[in-house]
Amino acid sequence: MSDLPDGIRPLTPAEAQTRRKRSLAIALTLGALVILFFVLTIAKLGPQVLQRPL
Amino acid sequence: MTTLSNSVTADTPTFAPAVGGEVRDFFALLKPRVMVLVIFTALVGMVVSDVTVNPVIAAISLLMIAVGAGASGCLNMWWDADIDALMTRTAKRPIPDGRIRPDEALAFGIVLSVGSVLILGLASNWLAAGLLAFTIVFYAVIYSMWLKRATAQNIVIGGAAGALPPVVGQAAVTGHVGLESLILFAIIFIWTPPHFWALALVKSGEYAKAGIPMMPNVAGPDSTRRQIVWYTLLLAPLGLAPVFFGFGGWLYALVGVLGGLGMLAGAVQVFRLRQGESERKAAMGLFAFSILYLFLLFSALLAEQGLGLYRAVVV
Fold it and tell me: With 80 as the cut, is the pLDDT of residue A49 above it?
């Protein structure tokens, strides 16, 4: 039984693949942003990032 | 746009859930070829600044300048979808071709604009971020929404947006705007009219169909040809300004002189040949050569300043 509201048909295989690819691209972009902010933080802080009181 | 009502009856047609465009279509919205040009000119703006910068921060800044340029291209395509559909050169773009909905493109463009400006500000400085924001607003709002459909001077004034990347690049690595990037700005700014009007001479029918007041449609082809010559007469010596201001060496001077002469020869050909196929060939020849000219000028600066090939010209 479908969970879709009345009047909404299910996705065709081609549409589902398009949506999957787009979701993957969004996930990769978010991952890239995490890496970008991490690398940027290290680059801005410089070697001092290793200097911390223990 | 189709909207779904809450009261769907048995004889209401069924709708597909919103799927959205393909990844490659979103990428096409960013005008990738323009992005490459922006990366290149912004990089030259950075290397002529003669400062030591963290390569990671410089690379992230460059990426954000490119994304900001892509975002402004996306917003331009969103706004211009109606006229893009009327011209063969642009009819296959993702929005007029129906592959991406206008609201998707608008959201994509806004998110990338805000994101690129914020990250550039965090990575480098807020002067560079402000200049990038100005560039995006200038291209998407001042040029696309206003000038393009309002005046034959559209690409002259709007050319400022395309000329700004070296200025943003220099601001990103130095925190200020110097004479070097302003000269590069001036070169691209004066280069833009002969470059675009050469194309507009050939595509004037298409622009007329879309109702865009390009110079050949408003002032006529002969006036446009005269103006191409005047702008090229200004551009050829201006192209040598980096030599006189000490950041262009022998290699740059050679490229500047030969390229400037090539541009002048192309402009004279466009002025002289006004009939049939030779007219089209002259205009497309100048259009293609103008791209090569700008590429070689900036490549010479990159080679001299980036690879250490700079040898001063005594003037």
Answer: no
Residue B15 pairs with which residues in a beta bridge? A8
**Residue of A21, A40, A43 lying closest to B23 (CB–CB):** A21
For residue A10, what is the nearest residue in chain B, using CA coordinates? B16
Nearest by CB to A18, which of B19, B60, B122? Answer: B19
**Contact criterion met (CB < 8 Å) for B15 and A18:** no
pLDDT, tens digit, 9 for 90 and up, residues B145-179: 999 999 999 999 999 999 999 999 999 999 999 99
Residues B244 and B116 in one domain: no
- Residue A27's domain comprises 20-47
Q: pLDDT band for B5, please (50, 70, 90 cuts).
A: very low
Mutation site, A2, A11, A19, A22, interface B, largest B CB count within 10 A: A22
For chain A, what is the domain count?
Answer: 1
- Average confidence (pLDDT) over B243-258: 95
CA distance B105 to B99: 11
- Of B12, B19, B119, Cβ closest to residue A19: B19
Residue at A29 is within a domain: yes
Return the bridge partners of A8, or none: B15
- For residue B3, the model assigns a pLDDT of 43
**Interchain pair A8, B23: CB under 8 A:** no
Instruction: Give the CA dihedral B153, B154, B158, B159, nearest 10 degrees.
Output: -60
d(C-alpha B198, C-alpha B194), whole Å: 6
